[in-house]
């Protein structure tokens, strides 16, 4: 049905031979610009959602490979905060856009209501109802797209106003206010009719009875609307409180999980410290016998070196003594040889002297 309606609209409005072509070319340009704007907005939203989705996937990927380190916890916390900030920013931006659209929608509804009533007045040719359009209270219309969002009682009340001439039932402000004055004074009892006829010149008894019937229905529907809006607000409040509680519960659970995770990391760190201390103690216990053995071995090697050095000194001393003895023996032998040579030479000299004396004696005889 929507497609057929758009087809008929395009056939009449955008036909080059149409008498309204010039006027509706403005609508054609506006529609094009709005289409481009919607596509741009859609691309922007898809980009934001894609970014949020990528961050969530990155967070899920990190959670698949949990590492018990403070750096990992900080990184995980940073990713979670980034995801939460992105979601909150996206929701806040969409909320502002939604509120702006609601304001524009309300303005459009009011404007459409005015044009709708003007068309009706043109068809009816009523000069009395023509005055109603000038009053803000008559600007009421029920947008079809709102019917799915608003409570049924609100839609029924708005439809009633639209079909019966707005907040004053099709009467002008002067007559309606006089009617309310008299009706309120008599609290809606039939005794008000005579006085009402005096105040409402130009209105017949049938007009006043019809307006009275309309006003009573107006009060009933208005009360239903107020009650419905009250319930709707209470429901919204409950949903908001429920969402807040759910959010607080989720945040509490997340905080507890984070604290549990941090406590587990702390316990693991303490356990690693205890294990490291035990390993160090075991190493020290193992190192003591080894050190003692090394010290004993070192002591033995020192004693061995001392013995070797002592033996070396003894050998050097013996060698020195031997060399000294050899040298003394050699010197003694040389001295004895020298003395022997001197003695032999002295003997030879003595023999020469004796021989000379003998020769001398022989010659004298």
UniProtKB/TrEMBL annotation:
Region Disordered, residue ranges: 234-274, 337-365
Keyword Coiled coil carried by entry: yes
Presence of keyword Transcription: no
Coiled-coil intervals: 42-118
Keywords on record: Coiled coil
Protein name (record): CC112 protein
Native source species: Lophotis ruficrista
């Amino acid at each position: 049905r929507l497609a057929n309606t758009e087809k008929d609209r395009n056939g009449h409005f955008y036909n080059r031979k149409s008498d309204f072509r010039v006027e509706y070319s403005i609508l054609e340009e506006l529609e094009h610009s709005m289409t481009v704007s919607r596509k741009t907005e859609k691309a922007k939203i898809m980009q934001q959602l894609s970014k949020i989705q990528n961050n969530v996937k990155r967070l899920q990927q990190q959670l698949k490979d949990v590492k018990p380190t403070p750096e990992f916890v900080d990184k995980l916390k940073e990713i979670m905060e980034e995801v939460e900030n992105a979601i909150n920013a996206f929701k806040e931006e969409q909320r502002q856009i939604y509120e702006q659209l609601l304001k524009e929608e309300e303005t459009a509804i009011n404007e459409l209501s005015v044009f709708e009533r003007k068309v009706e007045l043109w068809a009816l040719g009523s000069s009395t109802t023509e005055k109603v359009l000038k009053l803000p209270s008559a600007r009421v219309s029920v947008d079809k797209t709102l019917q799915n969002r608003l409570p049924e009682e609100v839609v029924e009340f708005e439809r009633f106003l639209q079909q019966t001439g707005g907040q004053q039932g099709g009467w002008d402000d002067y007559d309606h206010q006089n009617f309310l004055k008299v009706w309120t004074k008599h609290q809606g009892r039939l005794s008000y009719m005579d006085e009402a006829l005096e105040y409402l010149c130009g209105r017949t008894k049938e007009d006043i009875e019809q307006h009275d019937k309309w006003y009573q229905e107006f009060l009933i529907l208005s009360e239903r609307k107020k009650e419905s809006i009250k319930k709707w607000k209470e429901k919204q409040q409950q949903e908001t409180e429920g969402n807040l509680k759910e959010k607080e519960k989720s945040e509490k659970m997340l905080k507890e999980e984070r604290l549990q995770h941090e406590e587990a990391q702390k316990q693991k760190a303490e356990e690693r410290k205890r294990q490291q201390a035990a390993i160090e103690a075991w190493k020290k216990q193992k190192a003591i016998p080894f050190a003692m053995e090394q010290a004993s071995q070192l002591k033995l090697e020192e004693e061995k070196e001392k013995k070797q050095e002592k033996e070396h000194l003894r050998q050097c001393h013996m060698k020195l003594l031997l060399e000294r003895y050899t040298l003394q023996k050699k010197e003694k032998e040389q001295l004895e040889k020298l003395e022997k040579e001197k003695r032999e030479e002295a003997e030879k000299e003595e023999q020469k002297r004796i021989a000379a004396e003998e020769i001398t004696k022989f010659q004298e005889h």
